[in-house]
Design brief:
The complex is a heterodimer of chains A (about 80) and B (about 625).
Chain A lengths: L10 E7 L6 H9 L7 E7 L6 E5 L3 E5 L1 H4 L2 E5 L1
Antiparallel strand pairs in A: 1-2, 1-5, 2-3, 3-4
Chain B lengths: L1 H10 L15 E7 L5 H9 L4 E3 L8 E8 L2 E7 L11 H12 L4 E7 L3 H12 L5 E6 L1 H6 L3 E2 L1 H8 L3 E3 L8 H14 L10 H7 L4 H8 L3 E2 L8 H9 L5 H43 L4 H38 L1 H13 L6 H9 L4 H7 L6 H10 L6 H14 L2 H26 L12 E3 L8 H35 L10 H8 L1 H4 L6 H10 L6 H9 L3 H11 L2 H13 L4 H11 L2 H28 L1
Parallel strand pairs in B: 1-4, 1-5, 5-6, 6-8
Antiparallel strand pairs in B: 2-3, 3-4, 7-9
Helix pairs in contact in B: 4-9, 11-12, 12-15, 12-19, 13-14, 14-15, 15-26, 16-18, 17-18, 17-24, 17-25, 18-25, 19-26, 20-22, 22-23, 23-24, 25-27, 26-27
The chains are: A alpha+beta (about 80), B alpha/beta (about 625).
Chain lengths: ~80, ~625
C-alpha cells in the first residue's frame, strides 16, 4: 500500500520509494526530508477537498505533500 | 566589492593550474544548511546584522554577505539559500552548486537543525565529499534538549571528522566556541589556496547511502519516539481542524489585515506629515530664488518622488514585522497546507494566497513577501496577480467616486463588488497564465511544517530593517524618475493646465480607447497621475477640474453616469497600481521583459474587465 491508503494517525514503515513522473528529483527531495526505506512515518491528517497530507517522518520532521507525491511512497503498516 | 571580484576572477581557473594569487587574501566562509535550520539567524548573530547584498559570478539571485574580523583575520561570511540537498534540482540548489563551483571558499559552515539531525546528517556527508574544510553547527540545541533528543557531538565529530558544535543561534549559546573553531580552521587552511571546485564530479563520486547515515549516527544520537505529543501537535489539532481550520485562517488573516490597516496606514500619514513639513520649512524656501518651473520640478517632481518613497517605509516596516511573525511562527506553511487544494488548481500555493491577502493593505510589501516562494515560476505567477489586490490607496479613490456618483445605500454594495472582482480577477489571471510554460512549475509540492515558535523581537526588527534597506536601494531612483516623468507630462507646455498639458492631450488622444469604458479625457488624465500613486488621484482631480474637492465631486456627479463610474473604478482597480509596485516587480524579478509583461497585461486586462463591467452595469 502507499502512504495515501493510510488512515488518520496510522503509523508505518517505509518499504521503498517509486520513481514518479517527477523522476529522481522527487525521490531525492523525499530522501532529504528523511523519507528513506525503513523510516517510521505517521499520517497525521489529510487536508479536506483532496488537499495534501500532513505526515510525520521519524519523530521530529513534519511535512505536507500532495496525494500524487504520496502515491510513490510504498509503506508497510505497523 | 572590487577586491572580491578580483579574487573571484583570479581564482576561476581549473585546479590543475593552481598558482599563488594574492599573498594577503580575505578568507571566505560559506554557510549552508536546510531551510528552517536557523541558518540566517546564525548568520545575523555572527555578522551583527552587518550584511549587504552582493553579486556573485555565475548566479543571478542576491546573496547576503558580511565581513567580520575573527582574531587577526578578515573573514567574509556568505549566507547561501537554504537547500535540502546539494545534489538537488530546485533553483536554490542549483544556485548553491553554482556558487560553490564559481567562487572559492576556505570553509563550509554546515548548519543542521539539531532536532532533525536524524535526517539532516546527510548534508554533512555531502559537504564532506566536496573536499573543502567543514565545520558543523548543530543549531537549536535548546529545542532539541527540550524534545529529549540526546546528541553526542564529540562522537559525531570523530565519526565524520569535522569539528562539531551544539549551538543555539536564537539565544546565542555556543557561538564563541564555534567562532573560535572557525578561526582555528582558517589558520590551518591558510597555506592551501582555496579554489573553485568541480562540484558535480565530486558529489557523484561519493553517493550517499541511507545506511551510511544510519551507521554514522548510530548510538551518537537518541531521538524521541515517533508518537511523542508536542505543543505543536496540540495547536495543530485546532488550527488545522478539518472544519474550523480554514475559518480560523481567514480570521487570523483578517487580524493581520487589520494590523496593517490600523497601524501601517496611519504610519504612512505620519511619514507624509514629516515630508510635508520638510517641504514647507526647508525645500520651498531653499528653491524660492529659482525660476517657477525649476521650483515646481524640484518640489512636485523630485521631492514628490522622495516623499512617495518615504511614505512606503513605515508601511514596509509594519508589514514585515507582521510577516516575520507569521512566517517564523510556522503558520505560513500551515496556510499553504490548508489552501493547497484550491490554490493548486490555478498554479499557486497557499503562500501565494497569504500574500494576496496582504496585498489588500499594500501591494509593495506583499510583492517583496513572495520571496518565501522558492520556485521562481510560481513566484512570478504570484507577483503577476498580487497587483490586482485592492490596496488601501485605491480604496480612497473608490470611496470618493462612489460617494460622488452613487446614492448612499448602493455605495457599500459597489465597494463590496469591487473587492470580489479583485479576487476573481486575480484567480482568472492566475488560471490563464499558469497554463503557460513560463509560469508552469514542475517542482514537487513537499513542504516542511516547522513547529510553532515564538519569533524573537530582535529577529523581527532585523527583518524589517533589512527589507527597508532593500526597498530603498532598489526603488528610490525608479520612483523619483517616474515622478519627474509625470511632472513633465502634466506641466508642459509651460503655463498650461488641465487638458492643455501633454498629459491632457494624451487623455484626449486616448479618447477612442477610453470612451468605450466610460472614461472621459479629464478622468484619463487622472489615471495618468494615478500611474505614480493612487493616493494622488483624488488630489489631481482638483487640479484637473480646477475646483475644490467638493466641487469636483459635484462636477463628476453631473458628467459621469453610474455605468461610466463603474468602468472607471474597475479600470483603476486593475491597471498598474503605482510606480512603487512596478519598481518592486522589477527589483524582485530582475527581469525587464517580465516587468513590461505585467504592465501591458494589467492595462489590457483592466480595459477588458472595465468594458465588460460597464456593459453589465448599463443593463441595470
Amino acid at each position: 500500500m502507499t502512504l495515501n491508503d493510510f488512515k488518520h494517525q496510522q503509523q508505518g514503515r517505509i518499504d521503498r520509494l517509486e520513481t514518479s513522473h517527477h523522476g529522481i528529483a522527487l525521490t531525492r527531495r523525499l530522501a532529504a526530508m528523511g523519507l528513506v526505506p525503513d523510516k517510521i512515518v505517521t499520517l497525521i491528517r489529510k487536508a479536506p477537498w483532496g488537499g495534501p497530507l500532513h505526515v510525520r517522518v521519524g519523530s521530529t520532521t513534519e511535512i505536507a505533500l500532495r496525494r500524487a507525491e504520496a502515491d510513490c511512497i510504498r509503506v508497510v503498516p505497523l | 566589492m572590487s577586491d572580491c571580484k578580483k579574487c573571484a576572477v583570479g581564482t576561476s581557473q581549473p585546479a590543475s593550474s593552481a598558482r599563488p594569487i594574492e599573498l594577503v587574501r580575505k578568507r571566505r566562509v560559506a554557510i549552508v544548511g536546510q531551510p528552517n535550520c536557523g541558518k540566517s539567524m546564525l548568520f545575523n548573530r555572527i555578522t551583527h546584522a552587518g550584511a549587504r547584498v552582493g553579486n556573485w559570478p555565475g548566479i543571478t539571485v542576491d546573496l547576503l554577505s558580511a565581513r567580520v574580523r575573527l582574531d587577526d583575520k578578515l573573514v567574509e561570511f556568505v549566507d547561501l539559500p537554504g537547500i535540502y540537498d546539494l545534489e538537488g534540482f530546485s533553483e536554490d540548489e542549483q544556485v548553491v552548486r553554482s556558487f560553490l563551483s564559481h567562487t572559492a571558499c576556505d570553509l563550509l559552515l554546515v548548519v543542521l537543525n539539531a532536532t532533525q539531525i536524524d535526517r539532516q546528517a546527510r548534508m554533512v556527508m555531502q559537504a564532506k565529499s566536496l573536499g573543502i574544510p567543514v565545520v558543523v553547527a548543530l543549531n537549536m540545541a535548546d529545542e532539541a534538549r527540550h524534545l529529549g533528543i540526546q546528541i553526542d557531538a564529540q562522537t559525531l565529530a570523530a565519526r565524520w571528522q569535522h569539528p562539531t558544535y551544539l549551538i543555539s543561534a536564537k539565544y546565542g549559546q555556543g557561538l564563541k566556541d564555534l567562532l573560535h573553531e572557525i578561526s582555528q580552521c582558517l589558520v590551518a587552511t591558510s597555506a592551501s589556496m582555496a579554489l573553485p571546485i568541480d562540484i558535480d564530479a565530486r558529489l557523484s563520486q561519493h553517493p550517499i547511502e541511507p545506511s551510511r547515515i544510519q551507521a554514522l549516527t548510530e548510538g551518537a544520537i537518541v531521538m524521541p519516539p515517533p508518537d511523542l505529543e508536542t505543543r505543536t501537535d496540540r495547536i495543530d489539532r485546532l488550527l488545522l481542524h478539518p472544519l474550523f481550520g480554514i475559518p480560523l485562517f481567514f480570521i487570523s488573516m483578517l487580524g493581520v489585515f487589520y494590523l496593517i490597516w490600523f497601524v501601517g496606514l496611519p504610519s504612512q500619514d505620519l511619514a507624509e506629515l514629516v515630508t510635508g513639513w520638510t517641504q514647507s520649512t526647508w525645500i520651498e524656501p531653499a528653491v524660492a530664488p529659482l525660476s517657477e518651473t525649476i521650483q515646481s520640478l524640484i518640489v512636485d517632481g523630485v521631492w514628490g518622488g522622495v516623499a512617495t518613497v518615504a511614505s512606503f517605509l513605515p508601511l514596509i516596516v509594519v508589514f514585515f514585522f507582521v510577516m516575520a511573525a507569521v512566517e517564523d511562527s510556522g503558520y505560513l506553511s500551515r496556510a499553504a497546507f490548508m489552501m493547497d487544494a484550491w490554490m493548486s488548481k490555478v498554479g499557486l500555493d497557499g503562500r501565494g494566497f497569504v500574500m494576496q491577502m496582504m496585498g489588500f493593505g499594500c501591494n509593495v510589501p506583499a510583492l517583496m513577501g513572495t520571496r518565501v516562494i522558492r520556485s521562481r515560476s510560481m513566484r512570478l505567477l504570484s507577483m503577476l496577480v498580487i497587483p490586482f489586490s485592492l490596496c488601501s490607496a485605491r480604496l480612497a479613490v473608490f470611496v470618493f467616486i462612489i460617494a460622488a456618483v452613487f446614492p448612499e445605500q448602493q455605495g457599500a454594495v459597489i465597494l463590496f463588488l469591487l473587492y470580489v472582482l479583485s479576487f476573481v480577477s486575480a484567480f482568472i489571471a492566475a488560471a490563464i497564465f499558469s497554463r503557460h510554460k513560463q509560469f508552469f512549475h514542475a517542482e514537487p509540492f513537499v513542504l516542511e511544517l516547522p513547529p510553532y515558535r515564538m519569533p524573537t523581537l530582535c529577529q523581527v526588527l532585523l527583518r524589517g530593517w533589512g527589507e527597508v534597506q532593500a526597498f530603498l536601494s532598489r526603488a528610490t531612483l525608479f520612483i523619483i524618475a517616474g515622478c519627474v516623468g509625470v511632472w513633465v507630462l502634466t506641466h508642459f507646455p509651460l503655463g498650461s493646465t488641465g487638458l492643455d498639458t501633454w498629459g491632457g492631450q494624451l487623455g484626449e488622444w486616448l479618447t477612442p480607447v477610453m470612451q468605450p469604458i466610460g472614461v472621459d479625457p479629464s478622468l484619463t488624465l487622472a489615471l495618468v497621475f494615478g500611474f505614480v500613486a493612487k493616493e494622488i488621484v483624488v488630489g489631481s482631480l482638483a487640479t484637473i477640474y480646477a475646483m475644490s474637492e467638493d466641487g469636483v465631486a459635484q462636477a463628476i456627479a453631473s458628467t459621469v453616469s453610474a455605468a461610466d463610474a463603474i468602468g472607471f473604478c474597475v479600470f483603476t482597480l486593475l491597471y498598474t497600481p503605482c510606480l512603487a509596485t512596478i519598481a518592486t516587480i522589477r527589483a524582485e524579478s530582475k527581469s525587464w521583459p517580465y516587468t513590461v509583461l505585467t504592465l501591458v497585461f494589467s492595462l489590457v486586462y483592466a480595459w477588458c474587465m472595465a468594458f465588460l463591467s460597464r456593459e453589465i452595469a448599463v443593463l441595470f
